[in-house]
Amino acid sequence: MENDRKHMLEFRDVRLTYHTKAGETLAAEHMSFYVDEGEFIAVIGPSGCGKTTVLSLAAGLIRPSAGEVLVRGGAAQTGNIGYMLQKDELFPWRTVEQNIVLPLEIRKKNTPEHRRRALALAEKYGLGGFLKHYPAQLSGGMRQRAALIRTLASDPGILLLDEPFSALDYQTRLNVCEDVCRVIRGEKKTALLVTHDISEAISIADRVLVLSARPARVVASHKMDFTEVSPLKRRESPQFSGWFERLWKELNL
Amino acid sequence: MKNEQKKTARLCGARGGKPPYSREHCLFLKKRRRESVLVQALRFGLLLVILGVWELVAQLRIVDPFIISSPSRICATIADLAANGTLFYHIGTTLWETLAGFAIAVVLGTLIALLLWWSERARRVLEPYIVVLNSLPKIALGPVIIVWFGTGSTAILFMTVLVGIIVAIMNMLGGFAATDPGKILLLRSMGASKFQILTKLVLPSSIPAFIGMLKICVGMAWIGSIMGEYISSNAGLGYLIVYGGQVFRLDLVMAATVILCVLAAGMYALVALAEKLLVKK
Fold it and tell me: Which of A77, A80, A86, A89 to mutate to test the interface with B (most CBs of B within 10 A)?
């Protein structure tokens, strides 16, 4: 029975080869892992190991050369995930409100009911007063929050986060990380975050996956044993440095 | 104290009551205002000096006005042309050729650029042709155009479009290609079709490129229409210039050139106005 249960996202023995004029690159091989509903997973790995590739595969933007990428048991395809990038990528000619409903327009779900839901989210997480503002009038942290609400607007099954804090300064990064974590946990969303920042992964995730150098595969999966969920509180907790050392060593094997 | 406040208010241009800014800021604003008034005055002054020296040199016969004409003679020539009714006929002819050629070049050029953006293969196939056409001096095609389209306004219109369209294509294609790849990735992850990426992202983000292209094409359209009239015509400002040169009437040449300057500046101002309306941020 346990084997029959469908995971939210599952990679089954995935291989991916990139073809360029200069030659072919084996980016991932024998990559297998799963994400269950409501889980917050962080993926770390040595730089250049193809962390973003994992997200592109999960988003259905690229197809695996071999193996399967499954979302709720079906092949991954664009449109039913929420993708959040390093930069907020808000469209400067649209107001915050128009930016937030963009996924609804793309998916032709721009009905009053869906709009109300999206705007209620914006209201709930403190963007209510900024809906008519243009992105240029917002601070970096607020822009990233608007980007998160836009990602959530179409109610995606799974959120893919590609180092969403790396473009922010340290102070803002901690705050936005706290913010994003609160929103995602508040909405009980499934999330897959890739990052090069070990402490960020430890502070935010339920489970941390460690990737090997290229060709990437999952070498370890660690359940984070914190009682707190707040990233800031986790950073102060006694287990934090233990996890940091352990993951650091695994990355540098 | 009260007096001081009033003085500051006057400095800022506010009548009575509390000044809107500190005295320092008011002084700063005043200085800036003064500077821009000065620039305007110098601009106009320079024009007056040039015209004055020109007129003087001609009046005192330091150089024969037959060769260099003079502001007063130019005015007289324009008045003459207006009196016998040919002025507006010539202006109309050139203006029509320029505007029609400009419009066709802009619309067709943008459409072709869209096509090239849509099909990577088409772009790669056509790229060398566009590059060669761009570097080719269009006037070299003059004889061919006359043979194909005759000596009427069709030939001139064709020349105008030809001069403008390549620049329009290259500028718009550059604008489309400069679309932020991160934003394209974002839309693709939402499941957007290519058409949606075009309408939601590529077109709106290319508005500045479009305005830039309009500005360049205004100049190109004038080059095209006047060049066309040089090759073959019996009306228009370019025709007046060529004809004036042939019969050695420099007054006529200068008068047509002055009118051309005014028209070109007017058209550029219209594009600048369009920019203000289109680009809010």
Answer: A89
